């Protein structure tokens, strides 16, 4: 239990404007939410023996893990609705990212980014953007592709401020490159996208993911799986950034071609929709220079606000569908996790042997 000064607040997630407090009351709570709200709070009564200046937010080793991360980017029009049917606003998207920031940061920080922007939400116009735009938050970096010349700059972020800058700019999906700004030409991960055509069962997609995992293992790589937030699955493997894009793409194409050759009734390696009915596209094209795939934990600009969610292989069952996880249920997801399902991702990186 702790004493707390009562004040009126104008919430902007990153910024809080306080009026001068005049009363003190005692509050019992079980912790703090990612949005800096008390969890399961109950008023115990006034504390006339406490002066307002004595009231501070306590931080101990026990409760430090519950303290939300800090940022300095204020959100304007925080009540703008991005996913109407789910009731997800700009503020709720920001709160979601506060919850998953430690998990998503390794996959979106210090990388060139392609972004799906929907400034008016999914019911308005949406468009992909990979270059800087007018009015972009100063928290978002402008970076130059070493192979391109011109006035257009790519975008990247370094921290939580940068991520909130993306939220402020109406970014609903984040699609990072498979390489970092330190090594544009040498990817540090590969991504195999399993995209089912009509009449393909979810169980078949799971079987395909397991097969990709095995074929990656034959190349000395460790596959990790995540939902796409759409219809399929992504199998992602970490690399030591030693091999350049052409060789990496060729190796992933070899996997896709082999699967299509060995099981032509189940898989295709060509994007042609005419050939995909009842089959799964094993899409290796995410592994070319400048190609991108949706980031782990990125929401999707689709009804229900689904999220591309990392899983353990043991979790990958028929009970979890491709759009099972959403911004709305992320709290229960995180509460049930004993550990980050991709906690060993970087420890498993290896040199591609092909």
Automatic annotation (TrEMBL):
Keywords: Ligase
Gene3D superfamilies (alphabetical): DNA primase, PRIM domain, Nucleic acid-binding proteins
Keyword Ligase found: yes
Domain DNA ligase D polymerase, first and last residues per copy: 89-342
GO molecular function list: ligase activity
NCBIfam families on file: ligD_pol, NHEJ_ligase_prk
Entry protein name: DNA ligase D
